[in-house]
Amino acid sequence: MLASSGTEGASFLDIPVGGRPAALGNAYAAVAYDAYAPVLNPAGLGFIERSELAGMHLSYLESINYEYASFVHPLTVGHSIGAAIQYFRPGDVNATNANGDPAGTFSGSYAAYSLAYGQTISDKWTLGVTGKLLHAGIANYSAEAYGADLGTMYSVTERLMLAGLITNIGTKLTFINNGDSLPLTYKAGASYWVGRLLNLNLQGEYAKTGLASAHTGVEWHPIEMIALRAGFRTDTVKELSAIAGLTTGIGLHLFGQEFDYAFIPVGDLGSTHYFSLVLRWGEAERAKRNLIRYAHRQPEKPEKEGFWSVYNFDEHDLPPEGTLIAQPLTNSQENAQ
């Protein structure tokens, strides 16, 4: 359980979504140019080339379950939209009356509905925004709140991406007369590709509650179809053992589609299991075209795929398919070509 749980409203928003982000210690702000962008960094939508659909089931502690679904779609060059749904059910809770005697059980649920937009500002820089509606229900009571995320990404080189993000700016989640603030958090991250096999991710976070945390993630591709992942996050180790900060997982890639699993131990509380799927439209055909282009391109004249300018990589030095390795062309550059 997160250290901030119970001190803010809708703290379920701090729980990672997706097997890949979870396995990487949630160090994902600089990698979210995929179907997780609406929740993890809307600026990643500026880099989206194709439509993607993601779905997740999380078997959390005890009888707690967490579901996630999202869809992203490019509108024009450098402009994309996305939508996401998060649904968290904490399970049944034992109730007592005024005398402390058992009075059956009650249940609750939390949901977040998000719409996001991202676009390129220059050939290296993107911005994005997410608006969200939150709904909570406990027994016969309900509450709603509104929030927003603001994000940016900057491609320093074809291998290094930097990101900044502010999440959960918004109103209080109020039951009757008691209101709790959303888990406002500031994030900064970086992602770096070492050749085509190894991706290193680092992210720092500072929450409104005063909790500062570090997140790290490593992804290794021994072969094209398999990604092995591990990470560590410090915001889950408070009052728990150090093992509660470890994250591990595996990804399977086939024809551009992706299945991810993550195993997250939570110390003496037990462990959690993530199962997620990312579907990409037209990815198999795109991968075939890329292989042909990489084999025949002229080093002195970069080609383009969609609105990407392809850098002069060696054929054996390219990151796995589906990975951002370039920078977006601006509208003027696209029209010029």
Write up what this structure looks like.
9% of the residues lie in helices and 51% in strands. The chain has four helices and 21 strands.
Summary of the model, kept short:
The chain has helices at residues 19-23, 37-40, 283-296, 331-336; strands spanning 52-59, 65-76, 79-89, 93-96, 102-106, 108-120, 125-138, 141-155, 160-170, 173-175, 178-180, 185-194, 198-207, 212-223, 226-233, 246-254, 257-265, 271-280, 304-305, 308-309, 327-328. The chain is mainly beta and 337 residues long.
Read across the widest sheet, the strand sequence of neighbours is 1-2-3-6-7-8-9-12-13-14-15-16-17-18
Could you tell me the strand content as a percent range?
Answer: over 45%
> What count of helical segments does DSSP give?
4
Q: Strand count, sense and closure of the main sheet?
A: 14 strands, antiparallel, barrel
Distance between the termini: 51 Å
Question: Element order, helices and strands?
Answer: HHEEEEEEEEEEEEEEEEEEHEEEH
Per DSSP E runs of 2 or more residues, the count of β-strands stands at 21
Shape: globular
Please tell me the overall pLDDT: 81
Give unreliable regions as ranges. Answer: 1-6, 288-318, 324-337
Give the helix/strand class.
mainly beta
Measured as a percent range, the helix fraction is under 10%
* Rg: 21 Å
